[in-house]
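The authors assume throughout that readers already know how a fold can be written as discrete tokens. In essence, backbone conformation is discretised, so a fold becomes a row of integers matching the chain in length. A single example would do more here than another paragraph of explanation. For illustration, here is how one protein appears when written out as sequence plus structure tokens:

…
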Amino acid sequence: MELSVTLIGIVLIIGVIWVLLELKRFKHRALAIFLMIVVLFTYFSFTFVFKDHKLDLSSMEGIKEAGTVYYSWLSSIFTNVKTLSSNAIKMEWGVNNSTASSLNLSKN
């Protein structure tokens, strides 16, 4: 048993070292992919948020209003994700099948 735990530990250490070395090479590619995702998210979210708003982006007041609307939308998304996550955590995820429970009781 000790041999298998030691072997798993050694394999994990080797795996972590290998991943760290690969990440050095992959760092620039990962950064480029991350930036592309951020740009695409920003474009599509701006398009979605401002499709119903008539904003004048040629004036400073219009840019301030656009920023207020966009950040309000963005904060509401984070609030909704937080609420959804906390409600999912509070749920009982165990097996609660009353039919299976009654069948087990009738067999005994």
Summary: Residues 8 and 60 are 60 Å apart (CA to CA). The helical segments are 2-49, 60-90, 98-107. Residues 1-38 form one domain.
